Amino acid sequence: MKAIRWHPPSYDIRVERIAVPEIQQPDDAIVKVTLAALCGSDLHIYRGHGGVDKIHTCGHEFIGEIVSLGSSYGSHAEGRPKLYSNLKVGDKVVSPFTVNCGECHVCRLGYTARCPEGALFGTPVLEGGQAQYVRVPKAGGTLFNLSNPSTWSTTLSNEEKERALTGLADTSLLMLADILPTGVFAALQAINHPKVQPTITGRPWPLCLSSGTGTTGNEVPFTTDDRTLTLAIIGLGPVGICASVSLLDALATRRLPFRIVAIDPIESRREKMKAVYAAIGESGKGSGQFIVHSIEDAKLIVKDWTGGIGCTAVLEVVGNTSALTLAYDLVQAFGVITSVGVHGEPPLPFTGRQAYNKNVSFDFGRCPARAMFPMAFDLLVKRQDVFGGVGRPESLIDKLVDFDSAAESYRAFEKGEVGKVIFDPWK
Ligand SMILES: [Zn+2]
Ligand SMILES: [Zn+2]
């Protein structure tokens, strides 16, 4: 089969013919890949920053069809995750970017990104999805069966899910592998954080955490400004855009007052964000302000909005120290920074004393995409105005290409010359 392979030490992408993967463990499935995406986090290894030196197949975002199942699958799989008993050859599936067992303590709690048996596709430990076929370990705990939507629950009924699925293009469904759940995760963590609750509930800390109506007896009423969420999103790549759309949707649904500044130093990304915002239907925008700025302008606008106090919460969707420094500078005392970017080796750009002095909360780390899938699916269905197309100014996906364009696509994507690229392994 054809596969896109990374060669050490860096910037070396080749399309090679390798053996089609086979079932190795009883819980494995083999998926014939219909589409695979290129992602910002593929660039860490591409640039040689991933701490890896082994040739491997790239990619962790793919959608496809089951062609082979291990011996664990079938009617004898009672008591295990449902897919072990009802996944069939021919089913259309999308995979989260990491494998998880779905059965351990960590998975049961929904923290599927950190399953002790987990692994990330497109690394030396697990061959990636930028290939014609991919082996999915623990597939019954990992995959989503798009042919059988009764195997996951959302706010939509089974009929609604089925109707929605017939209208969704594979290029759109592929966003469920990583970028959309990760964006939803960043937004969800920010607006559900305990420290954001005084602004949301209109009750001071810590009364905002209790459902009662008790008061301290000595409160000064909140102003309109006190009730307005001031939020910043740093990094407007595909995940940053998904986070923005998700945040706007959540704020609109809950009818919360807000002002958001979305920040990126690269003009083409800011233009994409503006085009996406313009395309979002009224129901997904809410009544707050949403503006897109460069870094310096963003600092000034937050200062202006808050009188120098800072943002209620900052979503950091880049994964480097300069983005984190900006997040720290923008956030208010008792503020929240949620960071979903993949951070490399450099130490965090602030000291314990700085963290103490701002009472700042940090939420770091990988999205549990398996657990976030249902929420992401609902948003995908709702926001086809921005998640539905390819190659339009407001599309998150810029191009659908064949494997022959792999090396050039990696090069152009790394240089910021092109946005999200999808590969068709069979073209
Ligand atoms: Zn990704
Ligand atoms: Zn697990």
UniProtKB/TrEMBL annotation:
SUPFAM superfamilies: GroES-like, NAD(P)-binding Rossmann-fold domains. Residues 258-379 form the Alcohol dehydrogenase-like C-terminal domain. PANTHER family: DEHYDROGENASE, ZINC-CONTAINING, PUTATIVE (AFU_ORTHOLOGUE AFUA_2G02810)-RELATED, ZINC-TYPE ALCOHOL DEHYDROGENASE-LIKE. InterPro entries: ADH-like_C, ADH-like_N, GroES-like_sf, NAD(P)-bd_dom_sf. It comes from Collybia nuda. It comes from the Eukaryota. Its cofactor is Zn(2+). Gene3D superfamilies: Medium-chain alcohol dehydrogenases, catalytic domain, NAD(P)-binding Rossmann-like Domain. GO terms for molecular function: metal ion binding. This is Alcohol dehydrogenase. Residues 25-139 form the Alcohol dehydrogenase-like N-terminal domain. Keywords: Metal-binding, Zinc.
